[in-house]
Amino acid sequence: MATRERRGGLAAAVVAGVLLALGRAAVAAEGSAGPHRRFEYKYSFKGPHLVQADGTVPFWAHTGNAIPSADQIRITTSLKSQKGSVWTKNKSIFEYWEVEVTFRVTGRGRIGADGLAIWFTEEQGMEGPVFGAADRWNGVGIFFDSFDNDGKKNNPGVVVVGNDGKLQYDHQNDGSTQALASCQRDFRNKPYPVRAKITYYQKTLTVLINNGFTPDKEDYEFCAKVEDMVLPSQGYFGISAATGGLADDHDVLSFLTFQLTEPGKEVPTLDAEIPEKDKEKYQEEFEHFQQELDKKKEEFQKEHPDVQGQPADDPFETVSDRELRQIFEGQNRIHLEIKQLNRQLDMILDEQRRYVSVVTEEIAKRGSAVSGQQGQVSQQEIDTVVKTQEEVIKQVNEMKNAMADTLRLISGAQHPGSAAGVYETTQHFNDIKEHLHVVKRDIEQLVQRNMPSNEKPKCPDLPPFPSCLSTVHFFIFVAVQTVLFIAYIMYRSQQEAAAKKFF
């Protein structure tokens, strides 16, 4: 227990040191024209090493379904009816402030729910119906609403709602009847994290949004502004999120808080808030932790001399890497199967052409030896067989072209995020199956149409040939081949569907 507490204290000391360094950099970078900005580490969090040994975040309390990790806090997971929030443990002691929040809202569907909220309230709203936090708050809430409850097609959007502790949030209208300001921004499923900068200075609240399309951290766009806004002089900062029938992952990567002081007023030094005794204690623990770390490094280098100077690879596979690998493997298998089907279609086409040539030559020789009415019947049979074979060859050529187009699409769909390529491949497989059914039905209709109802075709006796290939036998052979080919396609499709279950 003592070791765990000691590690927790060391982690807190490291986090405090990092946050103090950020604060000094922010103060140094701030110009003299605007308000003085001082970083407040007790009201902020940022990875890495965000969580202590006991699973808590320094200076913050989490509740509900919130899950802190080393690099971020997942407020809610993408499950139905989830609620979670994180709040500062201590009230702020400054009048004006600025917060920079970095978050991700990701989901599988085109529409998500419910949304995420950033709070500054007089009391902690640990849990409730308003995006996972309590209703009738005293302060302000900035809501990143994902779901369109009122059906006006104005979501996802950002809504600023103030409250004096008496107002009940209007869920049915997405707070539009109570909004002090709002803007329409799509913050779901962006390639980069979305950033929000919220500034409260001289009774004016300003909201700026970075839409997450570029890695530039300072690429902010104006969203909303509320003037003559009176907020509590002291309050708690918080973030909450909720899901409903639809669900998204709501992840907060960082929450940085800055105290704003008007020019001319005295800014207290950063070191003045930390007692000298605590600073010496933290410094001693940090030096001890650094010595232990150096010692462990030396021991590892002695035990593993072959990996000196080389960065250690991560032995664990992330979720995104596994999904990309599975997509590549699935597309490669589809690529190989289509190549094999293409080869089989070429073989069937060559075989059909060979049979057509043999039957045509045979019937032509028979037609020259038969006269009269029998000769007329033979000529009709010749025309029917030739037309039928031409139609069969045409259908097989169309199937071959369809398979070639599918192969080309699969070759072009080898992009990691190309979910549309996989969908088009499935559509082409369905088209090929339907096309084969049409070919089979046409062949059966031709066979039934060419067979007389009252007599069966007889094979003429020709001495030069030991055997005779009749038209019926030929079409039966083609139909059997077609049925076998269709059965093979269905069998491979079932195997692919069964394999996709493990993706």
Feature tags:
2 domains, 6 helices, disordered N terminus, 9-stranded antiparallel beta sheet, 16 strands, Jelly Rolls, alpha+beta
Structure, explained:
42% of the residues lie in helices and 20% in strands. By secondary structure, the protein is of the alpha+beta class. It has two domains: 32-273, Jelly Rolls (Sandwich); 323-500, no CATH class. The strands form two sheets. Strands 1, 2, 4, 5, 7, 12, 13, 14 and 16 form a nine-stranded antiparallel sheet that branches. Helix 5 (419-450) runs antiparallel to helix 6. The chain starts with a helix and ends with a helix. The chain crosses the membrane at residues 472-491. Keywords: Disulfide bond, Lectin, Membrane, Signal, Transmembrane, Transmembrane helix.
Computed Rg:
37 Å
Give the distance, in angstroms, between the N- and C-terminal Cα atoms.
Answer: 42 Å
Number of helices: 6
Q: For the residues shown, what is the average pLDDT? A: 79
How many E-type strands?
16
Q: How many domain units?
A: 2
Q: Supply the CATH class of the largest domain.
A: Mainly Beta
Gross morphology is: elongated
Sheet with the most strands?
A: 9 strands, antiparallel
What is the chains' assembly state? single chain
Listing every helix as H and every strand as E from the N terminus to the C terminus, the arrangement reads HEEEEEEEEEEEEEEEEHHHHH
Approximately how much helix is present in the residues?
Answer: 40-55%
State the low-pLDDT regions, or none.
1-15, 25-32, 373-377, 413-422
Decide which structural class fits the backbone. alpha+beta
GO molecular function: D-mannose binding
Pfam families: Lectin_leg-like
Subcellular location: Endoplasmic reticulum-Golgi intermediate compartment membrane
Organism: Gallus gallus
